[in-house]
Amino acid sequence: IRFCSHIIVDVNLERETLGSIARLKAEGGALLAAEPVSVAKAEKLLGLPCPADLITPNLDELTALAGYPVHTAGDMETACRGLSARFNHILVTLGREGAYHFDAAAGRGKRYPAYKAEITDATGAGDSFTGGVVYALAAGFSMDECIRTGMAAAVLSLESEQTVCGGISLESVRDIMKTRRVLP
Length: 184
Fold this sequence. Notes:
Elements: E1 6-10, H1 15-28, E2 31-35, H2 39-42, E3 52-55, H3 59-66, H4 73-83, E4 87-93, E5 99-103, E6 108-112, H5 125-138, H6 143-158, H7 170-179
Helix pairs in contact: 3-4, 5-6, 6-7
């Protein structure tokens, strides 16, 4: 792990394991991305010994991390601002509403509309989103491109009958980005 440039974890891991990975990340300078997985497990991220670079909670997981109900866009920005000392980039997945990115260094957020999708099964969409974002970061894309890449990867997962879409490739993701309209 010390020699990795990017690390993705989900919080199904034990608290001690997450802490060890975070410490190794800090020693080696890798980017640490974390997928909260569930409301019950999201709070494990608050105990990391050093900040995660990027987290991808859904709205319910953001509520758990913030410790209070998050219902409006204003609530979401306030919650992200409150968590910004622990997490550099907070990418909140919002289902049909798209995603919201809060950049701690800039102190502001931006909403990204969702691509149109014919949903077969939502299982795995958050993981595909996170994987797409981190792939794009490793490839040197801008944060806007990373988020759009993650959202397109999530569409492929949403439209697949499999939990992890076997057809996710850079080409298929780019095709979604070029051909799908975004929802209002």
